[in-house]
Write a structure and sequence with these properties.
Layout (H helix, E strand, L loop, with lengths): L7 H4 L24 H20 L34 E6 L5 E5 L2 E12 L10 E13 L7 E14 L2 E14 L2 E16 L12 E13 L3 E15 L10 E12 L2 E9 L7 E6 L2
Antiparallel strand pairs: 1-3, 2-3, 3-4, 4-5, 5-6, 6-7, 7-8, 8-9, 9-10, 10-11, 11-12
Length: 288
Protein backbone atom coordinates (compact mmCIF):
# COMPACT_ATOMS: atom_id res chain seq x y z
CA UNK A 1 0.00 0.00 0.00
CA UNK A 2 1.17 3.49 -0.71
CA UNK A 3 1.22 4.89 2.82
CA UNK A 4 -1.47 7.57 2.93
CA UNK A 5 0.08 9.62 5.73
CA UNK A 6 3.84 9.20 5.87
CA UNK A 7 3.98 11.77 8.67
CA UNK A 8 1.92 9.66 11.08
CA UNK A 9 4.77 8.11 13.00
CA UNK A 10 6.60 11.39 13.35
CA UNK A 11 3.64 13.46 14.50
CA UNK A 12 1.14 10.97 15.89
CA UNK A 13 1.04 8.54 18.75
CA UNK A 14 -0.49 5.12 18.31
CA UNK A 15 -4.61 -2.11 16.71
CA UNK A 16 -6.09 -3.18 14.26
CA UNK A 17 -8.18 -3.01 15.33
CA UNK A 18 -7.35 -2.59 17.54
CA UNK A 19 -7.70 -3.47 21.56
CA UNK A 20 -7.85 -2.51 25.16
CA UNK A 21 -8.78 -4.45 28.27
CA UNK A 22 -9.45 -4.05 31.97
CA UNK A 23 -6.60 -3.54 34.40
CA UNK A 24 -6.84 -6.40 36.87
CA UNK A 25 -3.09 -6.91 37.34
CA UNK A 26 -1.95 -6.07 40.87
CA UNK A 27 0.78 -3.38 40.64
CA UNK A 28 1.76 -4.05 44.28
CA UNK A 29 3.84 -6.94 42.96
CA UNK A 30 5.75 -4.64 40.60
CA UNK A 31 9.28 -3.93 41.91
CA UNK A 32 10.04 -1.10 39.47
CA UNK A 33 9.37 2.60 40.14
CA UNK A 34 5.90 3.81 39.11
CA UNK A 35 4.86 0.23 38.34
CA UNK A 36 6.80 0.35 35.08
CA UNK A 37 6.76 -3.42 34.49
CA UNK A 38 2.99 -3.53 34.88
CA UNK A 39 2.59 -0.57 32.52
CA UNK A 40 4.71 -2.22 29.84
CA UNK A 41 2.88 -5.52 30.28
CA UNK A 42 -0.58 -3.97 30.05
CA UNK A 43 0.30 -2.05 26.90
CA UNK A 44 1.78 -5.10 25.19
CA UNK A 45 -1.15 -7.23 26.31
CA UNK A 46 -3.69 -4.86 24.79
CA UNK A 47 -1.98 -4.73 21.42
CA UNK A 48 -1.25 -8.43 21.12
CA UNK A 49 -4.88 -9.22 21.84
CA UNK A 50 -5.96 -6.56 19.36
CA UNK A 51 -3.84 -8.14 16.62
CA UNK A 52 -6.45 -10.85 16.22
CA UNK A 53 -8.84 -8.29 14.75
CA UNK A 54 -6.30 -7.24 12.13
CA UNK A 55 -6.06 -10.82 10.83
CA UNK A 56 -9.75 -10.55 9.83
CA UNK A 57 -10.10 -6.89 8.75
CA UNK A 58 -13.91 -6.86 8.92
CA UNK A 59 -13.53 -7.31 12.68
CA UNK A 60 -11.64 -4.01 12.90
CA UNK A 61 -14.99 -2.31 12.33
CA UNK A 62 -16.41 -4.00 15.45
CA UNK A 63 -13.41 -3.92 17.79
CA UNK A 64 -13.00 -6.24 20.77
CA UNK A 65 -15.73 -8.54 19.43
CA UNK A 66 -18.45 -6.14 20.50
CA UNK A 67 -20.81 -7.28 17.77
CA UNK A 68 -21.10 -9.13 14.46
CA UNK A 69 -18.46 -8.14 11.94
CA UNK A 70 -21.19 -7.47 9.35
CA UNK A 71 -22.81 -4.73 11.48
CA UNK A 72 -20.21 -1.95 11.73
CA UNK A 73 -20.85 1.38 13.43
CA UNK A 74 -19.26 3.37 10.59
CA UNK A 75 -19.66 3.45 6.80
CA UNK A 76 -16.68 3.24 4.40
CA UNK A 77 -15.65 6.05 2.10
CA UNK A 78 -16.01 3.47 -0.70
CA UNK A 79 -17.87 0.15 -0.61
CA UNK A 80 -15.94 -1.33 -3.56
CA UNK A 81 -14.68 -4.90 -3.01
CA UNK A 82 -13.91 -6.06 -6.52
CA UNK A 83 -12.84 -9.62 -5.65
CA UNK A 84 -15.41 -10.14 -2.89
CA UNK A 85 -12.87 -11.27 -0.31
CA UNK A 86 -14.11 -8.97 2.44
CA UNK A 87 -11.13 -6.60 2.15
CA UNK A 88 -12.20 -3.32 0.49
CA UNK A 89 -10.31 -2.11 -2.54
CA UNK A 90 -9.48 1.13 -0.70
CA UNK A 91 -11.75 2.39 2.07
CA UNK A 92 -11.38 4.91 4.87
CA UNK A 93 -13.50 4.73 8.02
CA UNK A 94 -13.94 7.68 10.37
CA UNK A 95 -15.13 6.63 13.84
CA UNK A 96 -17.10 8.89 16.16
CA UNK A 97 -18.71 8.09 19.52
CA UNK A 98 -21.62 7.75 19.39
CA UNK A 99 -22.46 5.77 17.27
CA UNK A 100 -19.22 3.89 17.93
CA UNK A 101 -19.94 3.45 21.63
CA UNK A 102 -20.27 0.03 23.24
CA UNK A 103 -21.40 -0.88 26.75
CA UNK A 104 -20.44 -3.88 28.86
CA UNK A 105 -17.04 -4.38 27.26
CA UNK A 106 -15.26 -6.20 30.08
CA UNK A 107 -16.96 -3.95 32.59
CA UNK A 108 -16.28 -0.76 30.64
CA UNK A 109 -18.00 1.53 28.18
CA UNK A 110 -15.85 1.70 25.06
CA UNK A 111 -15.75 4.77 22.80
CA UNK A 112 -13.92 4.55 19.48
CA UNK A 113 -12.83 7.66 17.56
CA UNK A 114 -10.28 8.29 14.82
CA UNK A 115 -9.55 7.01 11.36
CA UNK A 116 -8.84 3.62 9.83
CA UNK A 117 -7.87 2.91 6.23
CA UNK A 118 -7.98 -0.62 4.76
CA UNK A 119 -6.57 -1.39 1.31
CA UNK A 120 -6.62 -4.66 -0.66
CA UNK A 121 -3.11 -5.09 -2.15
CA UNK A 122 -4.55 -7.32 -4.93
CA UNK A 123 -8.10 -6.01 -5.45
CA UNK A 124 -8.89 -8.29 -8.41
CA UNK A 125 -7.69 -11.54 -6.80
CA UNK A 126 -9.45 -12.90 -3.71
CA UNK A 127 -7.04 -13.51 -0.85
CA UNK A 128 -6.12 -12.75 2.74
CA UNK A 129 -3.81 -9.77 2.28
CA UNK A 130 -4.54 -6.30 3.65
CA UNK A 131 -2.72 -3.03 4.22
CA UNK A 132 -4.04 -1.12 7.21
CA UNK A 133 -3.29 2.42 8.39
CA UNK A 134 -4.44 3.99 11.66
CA UNK A 135 -4.59 7.71 12.31
CA UNK A 136 -5.31 8.86 15.87
CA UNK A 137 -7.46 5.76 16.40
CA UNK A 138 -8.39 6.02 20.07
CA UNK A 139 -10.10 3.50 22.33
CA UNK A 140 -11.38 5.14 25.53
CA UNK A 141 -12.59 2.83 28.31
CA UNK A 142 -14.59 4.27 31.18
CA UNK A 143 -16.49 3.00 34.20
CA UNK A 144 -18.02 4.35 37.41
CA UNK A 145 -14.62 3.92 39.07
CA UNK A 146 -12.67 6.72 37.41
CA UNK A 147 -9.37 5.33 38.73
CA UNK A 148 -9.76 2.44 36.28
CA UNK A 149 -10.41 4.60 33.21
CA UNK A 150 -7.81 4.68 30.47
CA UNK A 151 -7.35 5.13 26.74
CA UNK A 152 -5.14 3.81 23.97
CA UNK A 153 -4.35 5.83 20.84
CA UNK A 154 -2.73 4.22 17.82
CA UNK A 155 -0.98 5.59 14.74
CA UNK A 156 0.87 3.56 12.16
CA UNK A 157 0.70 0.64 9.78
CA UNK A 158 -0.14 -3.06 9.70
CA UNK A 159 0.50 -5.37 6.76
CA UNK A 160 -1.30 -8.73 6.59
CA UNK A 161 -0.07 -11.55 4.33
CA UNK A 162 -0.64 -15.29 4.05
CA UNK A 163 -2.99 -17.95 2.75
CA UNK A 164 -5.31 -20.76 3.85
CA UNK A 165 -2.55 -22.43 5.91
CA UNK A 166 -1.65 -19.38 8.00
CA UNK A 167 -1.27 -15.62 8.28
CA UNK A 168 1.37 -13.12 9.30
CA UNK A 169 1.15 -9.46 10.13
CA UNK A 170 3.94 -6.95 10.51
CA UNK A 171 3.40 -3.79 12.51
CA UNK A 172 4.93 -0.35 12.64
CA UNK A 173 2.87 1.31 15.32
CA UNK A 174 3.09 3.99 17.95
CA UNK A 175 0.84 3.39 20.93
CA UNK A 176 -0.02 6.00 23.56
CA UNK A 177 -1.60 4.60 26.71
CA UNK A 178 -2.84 6.58 29.69
CA UNK A 179 -2.37 5.58 33.34
CA UNK A 180 -4.32 7.10 36.22
CA UNK A 181 -2.07 9.31 38.35
CA UNK A 182 1.01 8.72 36.16
CA UNK A 183 2.42 10.03 32.90
CA UNK A 184 1.24 8.55 29.62
CA UNK A 185 3.31 5.72 28.20
CA UNK A 186 4.47 5.68 24.58
CA UNK A 187 5.36 2.34 22.99
CA UNK A 188 6.83 1.92 19.52
CA UNK A 189 5.98 -1.57 18.31
CA UNK A 190 8.03 -3.09 15.49
CA UNK A 191 7.03 -6.71 15.56
CA UNK A 192 5.71 -9.68 13.60
CA UNK A 193 2.67 -11.71 14.63
CA UNK A 194 2.02 -15.14 13.14
CA UNK A 195 -1.25 -17.10 13.15
CA UNK A 196 -1.32 -20.89 12.71
CA UNK A 197 -4.97 -22.02 12.34
CA UNK A 198 -6.26 -25.36 13.58
CA UNK A 199 -8.44 -25.66 10.48
CA UNK A 200 -7.98 -24.28 6.97
CA UNK A 201 -8.73 -20.59 6.69
CA UNK A 202 -11.66 -19.54 4.52
CA UNK A 203 -11.77 -16.26 2.60
CA UNK A 204 -14.12 -13.69 4.12
CA UNK A 205 -14.77 -15.86 7.18
CA UNK A 206 -13.81 -15.25 10.84
CA UNK A 207 -10.68 -16.88 12.24
CA UNK A 208 -10.91 -20.44 13.54
CA UNK A 209 -9.07 -21.37 16.72
CA UNK A 210 -5.29 -21.41 16.37
CA UNK A 211 -1.96 -20.37 17.82
CA UNK A 212 -0.29 -16.96 17.78
CA UNK A 213 3.41 -16.12 18.02
CA UNK A 214 4.97 -12.67 18.48
CA UNK A 215 8.53 -11.47 17.89
CA UNK A 216 10.07 -8.03 17.61
CA UNK A 217 10.93 -4.92 19.59
CA UNK A 218 9.20 -2.49 21.90
CA UNK A 219 10.58 1.00 22.42
CA UNK A 220 9.08 2.28 25.68
CA UNK A 221 9.14 5.79 27.11
CA UNK A 222 7.22 7.51 29.91
CA UNK A 223 7.93 10.75 31.71
CA UNK A 224 11.55 11.84 32.00
CA UNK A 225 13.10 8.66 33.42
CA UNK A 226 11.67 5.66 31.57
CA UNK A 227 13.46 4.93 28.29
CA UNK A 228 13.64 1.20 27.54
CA UNK A 229 14.64 -0.68 24.41
CA UNK A 230 12.95 -4.06 24.81
CA UNK A 231 12.58 -7.33 22.91
CA UNK A 232 9.36 -9.35 22.78
CA UNK A 233 9.51 -13.14 22.35
CA UNK A 234 7.07 -16.03 22.52
CA UNK A 235 7.81 -18.56 25.26
CA UNK A 236 4.66 -20.61 24.64
CA UNK A 237 2.44 -19.88 21.61
CA UNK A 238 -0.76 -18.11 22.57
CA UNK A 239 -3.85 -20.21 21.93
CA UNK A 240 -6.74 -18.31 20.40
CA UNK A 241 -10.08 -19.86 21.29
CA UNK A 242 -12.65 -18.96 18.63
CA UNK A 243 -15.40 -19.77 21.12
CA UNK A 244 -14.44 -16.67 23.12
CA UNK A 245 -16.16 -14.41 20.60
CA UNK A 246 -17.81 -12.03 23.06
CA UNK A 247 -14.82 -10.97 25.10
CA UNK A 248 -11.82 -8.79 24.32
CA UNK A 249 -9.57 -11.43 25.91
CA UNK A 250 -9.64 -14.48 23.63
CA UNK A 251 -6.49 -16.41 24.57
CA UNK A 252 -6.76 -19.37 26.93
CA UNK A 253 -3.07 -20.32 27.08
CA UNK A 254 0.40 -19.01 26.27
CA UNK A 255 3.24 -16.80 27.45
CA UNK A 256 5.13 -13.80 26.10
CA UNK A 257 8.21 -12.12 27.54
CA UNK A 258 9.32 -8.54 27.10
CA UNK A 259 12.99 -8.36 28.00
CA UNK A 260 15.70 -5.75 28.40
CA UNK A 261 17.17 -3.36 30.92
CA UNK A 262 14.56 -1.39 32.85
CA UNK A 263 16.54 1.60 34.05
CA UNK A 264 19.39 -0.16 35.82
CA UNK A 265 17.52 -3.45 36.31
CA UNK A 266 17.85 -6.21 33.70
CA UNK A 267 14.87 -8.51 33.54
CA UNK A 268 11.70 -9.58 31.75
CA UNK A 269 8.01 -8.85 31.97
CA UNK A 270 6.17 -12.19 31.80
CA UNK A 271 2.63 -12.08 30.36
CA UNK A 272 0.85 -15.39 30.91
CA UNK A 273 -2.66 -16.22 29.64
CA UNK A 274 -4.55 -19.11 31.26
CA UNK A 275 -8.24 -18.78 30.35
CA UNK A 276 -10.33 -16.82 27.87
CA UNK A 277 -12.24 -13.97 29.42
CA UNK A 278 -9.61 -13.56 32.14
CA UNK A 279 -6.79 -11.03 32.09
CA UNK A 280 -3.33 -12.57 31.87
CA UNK A 281 -0.93 -12.54 34.79
CA UNK A 282 1.83 -9.95 34.47
CA UNK A 283 5.02 -10.44 36.49
CA UNK A 284 8.50 -8.92 36.45
CA UNK A 285 11.40 -11.35 36.70
CA UNK A 286 14.91 -10.01 37.31
CA UNK A 287 17.92 -11.58 35.64
CA UNK A 288 20.58 -13.17 37.82
Amino acid sequence: MRRPCSHILATGVLLAALAACGDSTDPDDDPLPDNAATAVGLTVRDNVEASLDAFFPARLLQPLSTGPADDPCVAPSSAADTDGDGVPDDATYTFTAPPCRYTEVRGFTLDVVGQLRIVDPAPETAGFGADIAMTALRFSLSTDDSDRNYSITRNGFINVTGGPAGLELTTELQVLRTFTGLSDGLAEHLWTVGFDPETTLQINQPLPSGSVTVAGTVGWSRGTTERYDLTITTVTPLHYNAGCDRTGQRFDDGELRVSGTFGETPGSVRIVWTDCGDDPDIEFVTEE
